Amino acid sequence: MSRIALIEDHSRLAGMIRQSLSAAGIETDIFTNLSEAAYGLSHGEYSVMILDRGLPDGDGLLFLRTLRAGGTMTPDRVVRIQSLSTGYIPGEREHKKRSPAGLRIAL
To answer: I need a labelling partner for 88 at 20 to 30 A (CA). Which of 15, 17, 24, 100 fits?
Structure first.
């Protein structure tokens, strides 16, 4: 079974992604910051990493480059989350809902 490392600080978005992946039979570990992710990646084996660019303790892409430059094994497949966190449903005035369909397409 595949295991995915999801590095995302927005709990609602992380939960929606995990739920979608779980429905497909994919286990997902959620890390809410780069410190947690560094520890988790060094102690686990993941086939894919879904990585938020804007995390509370740094830039996800810079984190990935640092890991790879330091020789840390990272998954071959990395999905960057940048626009998903701002991808609100068009026409929504509250701008609080995100499109689950948009998540499925991006993943």
So the answer is: 24
